[in-house]
Every structure is written in C-alpha cells, then in structure tokens.
Amino acid sequence: MPLSVSPDFANRPMTTFAAEDLDPTESYKLTTGLIVPRPIGWIGTYGADGVANLAPYSFFQAVATNPPVLMFSTGINNGVIKDSLANCRETGVFTASIVDYDLGPAMNASAAEVDPSMSEFILAGLTPKMFGAVEAPGVAEAKAVIECKVINEMMLGNEPTRHALTFGEVIAFHIIDDILDGTRVDPVKLDALGRLAGNNYATTREQFTLVRPD
Ligand SMILES: Cc1cc2nc3c(=O)[nH]c(=O)nc-3n(C[C@H](O)[C@H](O)[C@H](O)COP(=O)(O)O)c2cc1C
After folding, report:
1. Within 10 A of 22 (CB to CB), how many other CB atoms are there?
2. Which CATH fold topology does 37-194 show?
3. What is the DSSP code string of 61-119?
4. Amino acid 8: pLDDT
5. CA max distance for the chain
6. Is the CB of 52 inside a 6 Å radius of any atom of ligand 1?
C-alpha cells in the first residue's frame, strides 16, 4: 500500500537556504545539524617525531566493503593542516578506534588542539597500542580498532575552508570477543557514540527492527 502524506504535513512552512548564499559557518551548522548521528572515527597516527597522535573525526564513514574502505574528512581552515592529516600524508597509515559511551569523555579530551609534540593519548589518559598490521597506534581501551592504509586523498571546497578526504583501506579489524558472534558485532554491547550538532551526542541504545520488503 502506498504511504500517504497528510496534506497538512505537505504544506508546513519551510525555510530554504541556497548553498551558494551561505557563509562557511552557516554551511557547517546546517550540514552538521541535519546529517545526524554521525559515526566518530577516533583517528590514531604517528607523527614523524614518533609522537602518538589521536583525534576524533565525525566526518567519518564506511564507503566500500570489497575491500573495506573508510574515509575521514579533515577541515582545513586558512591552510592550517591538522596533525592527523599531516601524519597520514607522512606515514600512509592510520587506525580508527570506535568510541563507545564510556570513552566519550576521553574522546572529547583528545579533541584538544595541542602542539604536535604533545600526545593526545597522554592528555586523555589512554593507552596507545600497536595492533600489528600497520605502524599506527590504536586506543587499547576501545572495544574495536580498525587498521588502515591510505589509498587516496581528495580535496574539496574553496578557501578559506577546504576539506581533505583521506580514504583508508582496512587491513585488519580488531574487536573484543565479548561483543562478537562470528562476524556479527552486537550493536548494544558496542554502545557506539554518534555525534549530533555542536557538543551533543547520541547513543545506539534505542533500536528497532524493520524487515525489508522482498
Ligand atoms: C566529536 C568530534 C568530531 C570531530 N570531527 C571532526 C572532523 O570530522 N573533521 C575535522 O577536521 N575536525 C573534527 N573535529 C575536531 C578535531 O578533533 C580537532 O581539530 C583535533 O584537535 C584535531 O587533532 P589533530 O590535529 O591531532 O588531527 C572533531 C571534534 C570532535 C570533538
């Protein structure tokens, strides 16, 4: 049976924003307000100086599965390159640890914009751990850590705000046994965080099932 939309709903007042009329802050607010919840990739890298770097990226997504590929997008404001991107360009590898509810405060602490010589692992009270497939540290306290090698970078946008999309092919997934049944990850036990706009987050605790039509 076709779904019907009440005429009242169809006639609700709407505001339209033409993207070309928005300044970078307005574009950011509308994009991050509507595209929710966004998964968070907790990106672990090594700097050329051997410092273990960690930062959350919510412009983060799975974009392919054969082989699996992840992407995170770095905002470049006025040409300033963040450490994760600089390190990926230097080393060609990164990890993406999954942020769960209990690790939320540590994830937030690791977002501090600090000098590259300072490790956010230390700042956030976390343990950098090598998982064996790539030369990049993951979060030992995370329930899952994904090791990736950089396969591509794409630049989008115009000055003063550009974005570099870093694509990483997954070399290995590491998942604690407590949340795993074969290759099925229990989403309740994973308890991943999603980012909403600004400082707000969602959990994946409330779920429901929809059986797909044939
Ligand atoms: C939940 C969360 C998500 C974030 N997502 C992004 C993102 O997608 N892209 C980005 O450039 N910065 C993002 N940030 C800001 C970076 O984490 C922050 O600039 C950090 O200091 C970058 O660290 P780095 O220089 O070590 O890479 C996010 C911050 C938080 C708290």
Report:
1. 14
2. Pnp Oxidase; Chain A (2.30.110)
3. EEEEETTEEEEEEEEEETTBPPHHHHHHHHHSEEEEEEPBGGGHHHHHHTT----TTS-
4. 79
5. 62
6. no
pLDDT tens-place string over residues 152-176:
999 999 999 999 999 999 999 999 9
Q: Which atom of ligand 1 is nearest to the CA of 87?
A: 27
Q: Does ligand 1 come within 6 angstroms of the Cβ of 40?
A: yes
Q: Is 45 in the pocket of ligand 1 (CB under 6 A)?
A: no
Sorted by where each begins, the domain ranges of the chain are 37-194
Supply the Cα-derived Rg of the chain in whole angstroms: 19
User: Whole-model pTM above 0.90?
Assistant: yes
**Of all protein residues, whose CA lies closest to atom 24 belonging to ligand 1?**
83
Ligand 1 close to Cβ of residue 97 (< 6 A)? no
The protein residue with its alpha carbon nearest to ligand 1, atom 5, reads: 57
Give the pLDDT band (50/70/90) at residue 83.
very high
pLDDT tens track for 40-62: 999 999 998 999 999 999 999 99
- The DSSP code for 192 is B
Atom of ligand 1 nearest to the CA of 114: 21
